[in-house]
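User: Okay, second chain of the day. Same drill as before: sequence in, structure tokens out.
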Amino acid sequence: MREKKLKRSEEIARQIICAIRDNKYTVGQQLPTEQQLTEMYGVGRSTIREAVKTLSADGIVVVQQGRGTFVRNTNGFHDDPLGIIKMDSYDRLKQQLEARMLLEPQIALAAVRTATSSDIEKLEYLCETYNSINGYGDDMVELDIEFHKTVAKCTYNEVLVRIIPMICDTVRDSGTYMYDSRESHTKARKAHERIVRALKNRDAISARYYMEQHIQETIQLMAKNERHSNADKNGGR
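Assistant: Same drill. Structure tokens below.
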């Protein structure tokens, strides 16, 4: 199957990522102005704006109105030997969720056998903290990611511990595609609690089932959002 040709804006986004990876721009540093970037890469302003929008959606840069664009985070690609971040944002999200569906239920099952009391306590703490937050924002997203990373750490399998952070960052992206983030938040709360309860009770079947259900709900909510988005584009037809 032929590889999909990248849009010009995606190519520019990749080049900016390479510049950040090579420490030309560091965390907190301002990128060149839009005009400077158009001259550097020989493209129009609309292409630069689209590239910056992609980088912003990926959490790599933050656009501050009236000030400029700043490097926000480098974790997304310094620890990305598989080049996942270079994929199209929407395709990447769908495929990462599919990968999580294949991996994480089995990880939860394995964690039942290896999780220590201390591990369980940390997961319970993450659930309590998650439940105490009102609304849906960056803090909750980071807690969600940390929860899944911690479940992987419970396996004490270094390969899994290294792989899961690469694919769990879909949680950051998924808010963009959720039709109702409050619904996503409510479902995630219940799922996390059920998973922890299963781990605590050493119930491998339930741990695997609830993790699979959790990720499946995320996929379904994403599909729901896509349907509503398409309906809006078609005038509600």
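The longest helix spans residues 204-233.

User: Thanks, on to the next one.
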